[in-house]
Amino acid sequence: MPRYSIIILFVCSLSLFFLNLGKTDIYILDEVKNSVCAYEMAHGSPQFVPTFNQNLRTDKPPLHYFFMEIGYLIFGYNELGARFFSGVAGMLLIFLTFYYVGMLLGKKTAWLTTLVLLSSTFVSIQFRLAVPDPYLLLLLFLALIHLYLFLESGRSLLLFYLFAALAFLAKGLVAIVFPALIFMVYMLLTKRFNLKKCLSVLHWKGLLLFLLITSPWFIYVGIETKGAWLEGFFLDHHVNRFLETREGHRGFPGLAILYAWMAVLPFGVWLFPALYKKRNFWLRNKFLLFALVTVGVVVIFFSFSRTLLPSYIGPVVPFLSILIAHSLKTKQIFRNRFRSRFGMAFLIILSLTIPIAVYYSIQQELPNLNFHWFKILGLFLLPVSAFVALHFYINRNKWYVVYTIFTAWYLFNISLHTFFLPDLVNSNSVKAAIEKFNLQTASDSLSVVAYKNFNPAFVWYFKSPVKVIPDSSSLNKFVKKAGNVMVLTNHADENDLNANKNLILVYKQKELFENGSVIIYSHVKQ
To answer: pLDDT tens digit string along 200-257?
Structure first.
């Protein structure tokens, strides 16, 4: 472990989570809705009730909204304000993982765990988004660590309940369900599951602390919305989302395993060798067993979910990183020649495939994008480093293999957020439409409305709500009364507007990486 490891971690995590953080537009659906909702919740009436475009939003609890609003107060109502505390959560996860893993498994394993986390593209993206997942990942990790410390060291449960309560405010029932399932499975495997132990976890002071933290806002929002928010959140966004496929994100058995594996790449190429150990090993190493149980519970749970996004699997990432890091420290991964060679071969294939996929994806979406030599260099980082790592592997310099892979993927992630994603996202069709028609600076004589469905990013760019007209007869009445009108819609409702003789199609642009289009119709008063 390097002598100045803390300084290295600080510099690496600071640059990974904050470099160019406010330069990439907020455009993707989840970021848009969360960022706007945070602003409207603080400035709407009644306050602290989540809304998007002035309509009730029941998707998420309020913790990340509160932090976003603090970000807006510091940096303004912009991308940096919305994302700032997500980056803070990322840095805290790195340092707290280093601290707790160092305490439980030694500093070398802690150091390697942070390298696995900092090289993960999933981690670099997740902790730069204006969504609740960064807060959940950090808080649930801390809650589970303190649950383990209670079970094995007799530490106080109050910190577990504190972090579990905050995690509940970040994402909901997973903050209760996952710790409960992990506790039961872990105690069964260690043959300590009994009524006395179960009751010992139900600490009355901890339960009181949990209720004091979580109840006030939920009671308030339930009263203000007459139960509508509570019904939408707990029934629709928990039960129904688990039982039904939503937004086209269909879950099926095996997909959760794939997402978990992808989340810890590049070192994930050795994930399965790291997990392949005899039963006695896990029973001797209780914290590693606890980490394995955590991974298993979350992956199996989401294997039955009909809706599954890559971010859902996020809580397993710190624990998978710990398991991989421990195998790297003991060099167990490299002892079996077949498994280690297979991992190296897969790493080379991956390092060759990803740059090609990134290049052609960007060229397909933005064929006129100019690739500066810095960008080309960023794409070559992975394949070159893979062969350098192979050289060290052949010469049995295992630590050089680890550091080469980390350095290359860390720099690739930096280039991803410095060059590729800003160019790609900032060229989106919503921003292009706004700039083409000067919609943000249009005079009061021009009305901009939406017909049925439209891209929510317009609300973020306008920094104000967009009036939505639900049917064609209401639209005709509005157009005749308002005069000069721009009508926003998407491909699903295009035919309705094509049939309207009062409107002219003036803009149609495909969405980035989506099948739909941003469509604008115009009506000019005669």
So the answer is: 899 899 999 999 999 999 999 999 999 999 999 998 888 888 778 776 677 788 899 9
365 and 514 in a common domain: no
C-alpha angle 402-296-338 in degrees, rounded to nearest 5: 40
The CATH number of the domain where 485 resides is what?
3.40.190
Amino acid at 494: E
Least confident window among 66-75, 117-126, 267-276, 444-453: 444-453
> What is the total count of domains within the chain?
3
DSSP 418: I
pLDDT of residue 360: 78
* Tens-place pLDDT, residues 288-336: 999 999 999 999 999 998 888 999 999 999 999 999 999 999 877 777 6
Q: Which of 338, 364, 212, 196 is nearest to 270 (CA)?
A: 338
Residue 489 pairs with which residues in a beta bridge?
519
Separation between Cα atoms, residue 181 and residue 296, nearest integer Å: 10
Q: Please check whether residues 154 and 201 belong to one and the same domain.
A: yes
Give, in degrees to the nearest 5, the angle at Cα 414 between 409 and 346. Answer: 20
Sign of the Cα pseudo-torsion (381, 384, 390, 395, in order): negative
CB-count burial class (<10 Å; 0-12, 13-18, 19+) for 463: exposed
Same domain? 222 vs 319: yes
Note down the domain range covering 395.
352-425
Closest CA to 139 of 203, 61, 79, 70: 61
Render the burial of 299-317: b for 16+ CB within 10 Å, e for the rest: bebbeebebbbbbbbbbbb
Give the predicted TM-score (pTM) of the model.
0.94
Quote the Cα angle for 318-319-324, to 5°: 100
Q: Which two tokens stand for residue 177?
A: 């369900």
